[in-house]
Amino acid sequence: MRASDLLHPRPEGLYCPPGDFFIDPVRPVDRALVTHGHSDHARSGHRSVLATQQTLDIMGLRYGEDFAGTTQAAQLGETIVLNGVSVSFHPAGHVLGSAQISVEHQGTRIVASGDYKRRKDATCAPFEPIQCDVFITEATFGLPVFRHPPDTEEITRLLKSAAQFPERSHLVGAYALGKAQRVMRLLRDAGYDRPLYIHGALAKLSEYYQSQGIDLGTLEPATVEGGGQDFAGAIVVGPPSAFADRWARRFPDPISCFASGWMRIRQRAKQGGVELPLIISDHADWDELTATIKETGAEEIWVTHGREEALVRWCELEGIAARPLHLVGYEDEGD
Amino acid sequence: MNRFAELLDRLVLTPSRNGKLTLLTDYFRSVEDPDRGLALAAITGDLNIAAVKPAMLRTLVTERMDPVLFGYSYDYVGDLAETVSLVWPQTPGNIPNREPTLGEVVAKLQAASRSDGPKVLAGLLDSAGISARFAIIKLVTGGLRIGVSARLAKQALADFGTVDVTEIEELWHGLSPPYTTLFAWLEGKAEKPRNTALALFRPVMLSNPLSDGDLEKLDPVDYAAEWKWDGIRVQAVAEGGIRRLYSRTGDDVSGAFPDLADAMHFSATLDGELLVGDPREATGTFSDLQQRLNRKTVTSKMQQQYPAFMRCYDLLQIGDEDLRALPFRERRGRLETFVKTLDPSRFDLSPFVDFTDWQALEEMRRAPPHPIVEGVMLKRWDSAYVAGRPKGPWFKWKRDPHTVDAVLMYAQRGHGKRSSFYSDYTFGVWSGAEGEEELVPVGKAYFGFTDEELKQIDKYVRDNTVERFGPVRSVRADRDNGLVLEVAFEGLNRSTRHKSGVAMRFPRISRLRWDKPANEADRIETLQALLDR
Q1: Which CATH number is associated with domain A151-278?
Q2: Could you report the predicted ipTM of this complex, rounded to two decimals?
């Protein structure tokens, strides 16, 4: 069968007509397969959701236990048949619980990557390349300028700055699911053993990570209850939006840091008032995107959310058929 | 190279002066010779490397990658040096086991001829990682643009060696990269370098502003008064055929004022104010002087239209004789005799302001005889000429600032301590015909208010936001709504860069006028009238 008959975009999201299900739908549907727990991919209100247990847990934490009519946990690597279509989940290396979804019917296999990265990350299972006919790749960082440095180097710069400016606090902006926990874990792996202070928005998810056996060390709320707490020399982790907020006033002369792949571009850091950009991303960079495309052996590439044109151009130069898949509703800025 | 690259990256994003000083001193402490000295020279603009043109850089990179992909990348990033540093293809297996040091990079670039320059650059880029590539490209395209002045770099050296910055300034022009003797002295490993170069800078003596109550303690007979001219404080040094004009921080500005430098037929060190015009006829305004500032080259037409001259304040050295320890009265006498020997179209004497009591001087200060006078100077007759800003011997007594009532239009978030506050304000005044008035921005200010007032304005900004653009918010401001700010400023220049046609000097918020309706704020004509005076 033609690949576009097996999966194609609809306003609700990527739809599989023979299987009658959606992948990462942005509007409520009957049956949703969800790659990972970031809010633009995992929405509440579907009648049934199939996802990894960790993704289901994360959705429950974010939306409450009744986020969907029914739920089913997918085991990694196990095939589930939905209306004659074989579906399996495989680790994507993006955040805890994240998975690529393989959809196979009548000899055609399409792998929807969701969001993915290739770097080692102690907070989630590593990406596994799956052989397929069509690979749907994300392109958040689909430009040759995006080349992420080793995350350990970035953490070293953060620790160096913390030592250089002991009288100031370092506020690390990091998304609440995945990035924040990865940054904390990297700090621990680098030998930082003082308490880390976290914004309230991170508490539940970080606790969940800890319950899944990912050691983040001592986390304390970055509150001033009881008064007089001095955050001089502290490393504080919180969602980036909080640092522009009045919440940030409790910290002494803070250095604003932001952990994101976007920090590769100096102007992005400058515009955001970021003093110490940390180039740490949960998405594949340019070299990883192109290497992954080759590894999957796919004859055709569909490119979604991000800078599609450059990756399509690269595929053309490599003689691989490619086209942008115009899906709506995903955050281009997600990292 | 990586440490230098990291320093550049940190400096460009660190807004606070103290933060920059810490980064610089830590760098000097942790990096060895000659790299730290070369980095210093790169920052102060004293590193001599043959430049590579941006077009050449583009050619080099598109020979190595698909031009379409390069085009997408450049469009996205917007900065050529940064784009090239990021997309430069690294051949696997061709990565050297260590990155080149700054010293090695500089040596290779300095040894390159014009014709093999691009090839040498490409080789260096092949051998470096992303950050280092960016730094290398910045070195060869000139202009680091990292927000660090030569003055700040010298302050960092002073902090590093715990010496006074005037000592660095005095030594500076006799030294050259990589400044090994300087660092050895600052680290306490060697004697202070001895300066044998000619026509060196002498650290300038500065004054303190007169505060409330100061005058009551001062006796008019102890002080001489001069007008405070609002030009550029310069030091003219000629010795052994070398002629130099220094700014008050010791930067060599001779190149921008060749007309004045050529007239320095003497062997002496003079302190004075650089102005434009012909001192025998008329002194130009600050707007006239501005025509001569910040230019790399000066046309002869420019030199004719706005000739530079020096209004002399003091004489520090004549021939081999150092006069700095003498009392001001004596130096002034020597100066008066000396100025008579100079070209009268290029040098004149700063006249005294005669006064008998403070009241009389106060009246003259309020009504100065020329728009380029910004107040009066008081100098103790017995004061020696000493470096820095000693408290007591010299005072500046400035004219009162101008004020205007303007309406807050935009607010931008601050940095560091102020990163959660909207603390930088763009304000405007009314223009246009009656019934069609609109606000035209006339300036930006980020100080002058108390912490409590900052909180109040921040709340006002958050409650009255109309639009957001990144860290900037536009604030509701129309005839019926708006926060009126009383803005104080020192002067007004014509500006072709601003829509309003004016640019304020040293604007700050002097009062919050919560009581004043927005439509009663000033009009642009009020400011234009100041320009035409």
Answers
A1: 3.40.50
A2: 0.93
